[in-house]
Amino acid sequence: xxxxxxxxxxxxxxxxxxxxxxxxxxxxxxxxxxxxxxxxxxxxxxxxxxxxxxxxxxxxxxxxxxxxxxxxxxxxxxxxxxxxxxxxxxxxxxxxxxxxxxxxxxxxxxxxxxxxxxxxxxxxxxxxxxxxxxxxxxxxxxxxxxxxxxxxxxxxxxxxxxxxxxxxxxxxxxxxxxxxxxxxxxxxxxxxxxxxxxxxxxxxxxxxxxxxxxxxxxxxxxxxxxxxxxxxxxxxxxxxxxxxxxxxxxxxxxxx
Length: 256
Prior knowledge:
The protein is mainly beta and 256 residues long. The chain has 2 domains: 4-60 and 165-252, no CATH class; 65-159, Alpha-Beta Plaits, CATH 3.30.70. It is built from 4 helices and 20 strands. The strands form 4 sheets. Strands 1, 2, 3, 14, 15, 16, 17, 18 and 19 form a 9-stranded mixed β-sheet that branches. Strands 8-9-4-11 form a 4-stranded antiparallel β-sheet. Strands 5, 6, 7 and 10 form a 4-stranded antiparallel β-sheet that branches. The longest helix has 14 residues, at 98-111.
């Protein structure tokens, strides 16, 4: 049995997050048919069931965001602060154009996202700052600012963060294995009838299962059977309106 890990998951494990942190308050979706070629691919088949905490209606986390819009043609961005804390951690010099400079600022923020709790993207002269998964509503209203030499900037403060609801959680890890939280019931009411063929596990941030060509989303895919698969169910025949329950779930990090 082998879980398939998305590029986004592998990238984030390499840089900033634990499996627990990346999938805490996420969900599992069960589909008919064969699983896609990789977790980066768009979902395929019919969505049969969404597994949440005790079959509760699921709300994904929305990351709070803010922006820095750069102006000027020379100088440097020396700090970028959120709630008065520098998340840039190293000055970025003006680099040919505002578009390239904004891209450089985003890259520098992302180099330190494991320390700061924020990541960034850029479009034109605008750097968009987003809170890492797990922050929920916490960063809403945090003030975004920067210090610059020669260059100038305008800002929008952090807003829009939404906390997840009825997401899945894990217990403490032991011997490299992490089980579902014992006090949670991982279950869902089947949305359609069909034969369960594969599943996808998502992190807490909004992810609609589309093609992820840039490697952003943490995902795990696996096959479903009655035995010997990544997810084993008592029966793979799911009936609309019935409840599917996952009684045991373990993610294991193998020894080297």
